Amino acid sequence: MSGADATTDWTADEMMTVAAARQLRDGTACFVGIGLPSTAANLARATHAPHLALVYESGCLGAKPDRLPLSIGDGILADTADAVVSVPEVFNYWLQPGRIDVGFLGAAQLDRYGNLNTTVVGDYDAPRVRLPGAGGAPEIAASCREVVVVVRQNLRTFVERVDFVTSVGYGAGPGDRERLGLRGGGPRLVITDLGVLEPDPVSRELTLTRLHPGVTRERARAATGWDLAVAEPLTTGDPPTAHELAVLRALVATTREGR
Fold first, then answer.
1. Which of 10, 34, 87, 259 has the lowest CB atom count within 10 Å?
2. Which letter does DSSP use for residue 240 in this model?
3. Are 228 and 196 within 8 A, CB to CB?
4. Enzyme catalytic residues
């Protein structure tokens, strides 16, 4: 999107959402989590990927909401879907056989091998925080052809080792996904409010490969709870275009008005 008219008036969350949306290819099937992943997926469909098929855990296939859904049970998903099927059918027929191209996930914790935690912070039997839980995330992480994680980067979230492995990324390193019999490809990208991380092709450790405009490598490393590997050369992504920002802000505004 280089060369397009752009503005410098954006927030870190908007940059992250735009960067995530750009990763979705038109005509593919995307299993969408609520929150930041849903915002990015709906932005992609409203801009460069009009034939992106959004699949929600509630059984809505090909949903086309004109605002951001408040939950997977939001009626607008069923109202605009190509089909509505049972939850077991979504998982048994679409997800587990590998028919979904991209899984879009968020997390409360993420570690250096892309493992995700949405279960507890602290000890499982006496947690400091009880999180929303797994939902369909473990199956999405296990079975989608590739996974994109959208999450804010800070020391609370980017931890050396997650307190609980809700969804497996690359386990403890090379070979773990294969040993566990996971058919999906695992995390391809982790997109944050600071930049983009990708797994090293050999070690599978997440490596910072791209920064968002105005962010330094020092800032990204300071927001990470392990010694973050940095690619050379480290690139900087394109800023949001005026069109991307206008569509994103309209989506968010419509959602607020509908509450």
1. 259
2. P
3. no
4. 57
* Residue 89 backbone phi and psi in degrees, to 5: -70, -40
CATH number at residue 197: 3.40.1080.10
* pLDDT tens-digit series, residues 61-77: 999 998 899 888 899 99
* d(C-alpha 130, C-alpha 167), whole Å: 16
Task: Kindly state the percentage of the chain with pLDDT values over 90.
Answer: 85
Domain that holds residue 74: 12-258
Q: Is residue 84 part of a domain?
A: yes
**What is the rounded distance in angstroms from the CA atom of residue 161 to the CA atom of residue 17?**
25
Indicate whether 30 belongs to any domain.
yes
Q: What is the pTM of this model?
A: 0.90
pLDDT at 148: 96
Percent of the chain with pLDDT over 70: 95
Please check whether residue 190 lies inside any domain of the structure.
yes
* Residue-level pLDDT at 37: 87
Q: What b/e readout covers 201-213, taking b as 16+ CB neighbours within 10 angstroms?
A: eeebbbbbbbbbe
